[in-house]
Amino acid sequence: MIRLLAIVLMVAVNAAQAQTISFARDVMPILQHYCVMCHLPGAEQGGLGLYPDTWNRMVGVPSKQSPLLLIDPGSPNKSYLYIKLIDSGESVGGSGLLMPIQQPPLDQDQIKAMRLWIEQGAQQN
Ligand code: HEC
To answer: Which CA distances in Å does 67 have to 2, 38, 40, 50, 56?
Structure first.
């Protein structure tokens, strides 16, 4: 009985995690709305340009402020761009402020979508 319960629980957990995050549908609108205005070519605050060609400008690209990559596919806790959404960056050897600056932090659903997208391999999907 306990084994059956464990299997049922595992199936339920897998179903809850099965949501695939899409870069185009879920991630890009967040960046466009909250980030790109300060990270545009010619006005790349913090030395970071996020537009155009956003995916190529962050996935596997070294951060200037820290020893980490901006997005390290599979590893949100080693992805500096993700860390700046929840922390100033100092905890991982970076500096500066929580992003986006001059605005409230992203809400939990947005942060979770970014995290899941990175965990799922930061695909260009
Ligand atoms: C109002 C302008 C502004 C907004 C909006 C903004 N940033 Fe920034 N960003 C900066 C500035 C200025 C710096 C450098 C100083 C600092 O880190 O506090 C920076 C630095 C960064 C860095 C460090 C770059 C590196 O190479 O190490 C990352 C990553 C970053 N921002 C991501 C984001 C993300 C993601 C968003 C949206 C959620 C965002 N920023 C929104 C102004 C902004």
So the answer is: 46, 22, 23, 19, 19
- Express each pLDDT in 47-92 by its tens digit: 999 999 999 999 999 999 999 999 999 999 999 999 999 999 999 9
Identify the CA nearest to 26 among candidates 86, 116, 115, 113: 113
CA distance linking residue 57 with residue 96, whole number of Å: 20
Question: What pLDDT, on the 0 to 100 scale, is given for residue 65?
Answer: 97
Euclidean distance between CA atoms 89 and 84, whole angstroms:
5
Ligand 1: residues with CB < 6 A are 34-35, 37-39, 45-48, 63-66, 70, 80-81, 84-85, 96-97, 99-103, 106
Residue with the smallest CA separation from ligand 1 atom 21 is 46
